[in-house]
Amino acid sequence: MTPDQYKTELHTIRGGNGIRLNVETAGRPDRKPILFIHGFSQSRLVWRKQLESELAEQFFLVAMDLRGHGLSEKPRDSYGNAKEWADDLNNVITALNLRRPLLVGWSYAGIVISDYIEHYGEDGIAGTNWVGAVSRLGAPLVDSGFLGADFLSCVPGFFSENITDSAPVLERFVRLCVNGELEMEEFYLLLGCTVVVPPYVRSSLLAREVNNDAVITGMRKPALITWGDHDRIASELMRKHLEGLVRKEGRKVSNYRGSGHAPFWEYPERFNRELCDFRESLD
Asked: How far apart are CA 179 and CA 48, in angstroms?
């Protein structure tokens, strides 16, 4: 692809309760759509290695900033209602006229995807890709041992308004997302995504008490589970639990040896190839 073909377009779409959402697109709208949903305290920029790849030649790629993240609106009190999260995805799908998109959700986005399916069902999507994703929040997540101890040690610092306390924690969180060292440019990109999320948003996100296991058990569309075997944020127990929830018919599992929590960033060529194959296999 030429540099011009890597160009993306930004959109402002009203989500649940009228929240302004920032959405980035790449590729041709008449191609099969893929909707990327980032994780906790990150932004659409984590999908740069997908939007700026040959995937944009074959598909219509859409990456959204979740409410409270990136360039989206950051209200103080709009994070506890599952219907509003579901409306966010539904409104993006509707506004961009996405015809049965594949939903690709990283980490916290497992909750966003299952919130959507709970309220809107699966008729409007082609399938799902769960990338180091979780099905629970709050006590249902922590008490099950589904989160790594290194991540849990960061929690108090996530909520601090004191930069002296929060800065080293946010840096540690970014490093926990991968196995090994990031290039300096990559580190500061991901750190920037983290820093622009206000502490009150991080607090509200982790304050939710959610168990969406039953929603996932009821899913019938094809699902791809993608996991790094050196994930220090979502534990191996979470992966096994998620595999047990998704019905065997139509379920695919891809384990990335040597990868941490973000295989799409650490192994983009393989991730993009598998994503392409999975999307092409769907209606």
From this structure: 19
Contacts of 183 (CB under 8 A, 6+ apart): none
Q: Provide the 3-class DSSP secondary structure of residue 208.
A: coil
Domain extent listing, the chain: 3-280
Residue type, 23: V
Query: Parallel, antiparallel, or unpaired for β 32-37 and 127-131?
Result: unpaired
CA triplet 260, 271, 244: central angle to 5 degrees?
Answer: 70
pLDDT tens digits along 19-78: 999 999 999 999 999 999 999 999 999 999 999 999 999 999 999 999 999 999 999 999
pTM score > 0.90 for this model?
yes
Rg, C-alpha atoms of the chain = 17
- Write the CATH number of the domain with boundaries 3-280: 3.40.50.1820
Strand partners, 103: 35, 128
Interval 220-245: pLDDT, tens: 999 999 999 999 999 999 999 999 99
Minimal CA–CA distance to 41: which of 96, 108, 99? 108
Beta bridge partners of 153: none
Distance CA 265, CA 186 (A): 10
**How far is it, in rounded angstroms, from Cα 92 to Cα 57?**
21
Determine which helix (DSSP H) or strand (DSSP E) holds 103, and give its type and residue range. strand 102-106
> One-letter amino acid identity for 195?
V
d(C-alpha 168, C-alpha 165), whole Å: 7
Would you give the DSSP letter of residue 160? -
- What's the CA gap between 240 and 252, in Å, rounded? 13
Residues linked to residue 71 through DSSP beta bridges, in sequence order: none
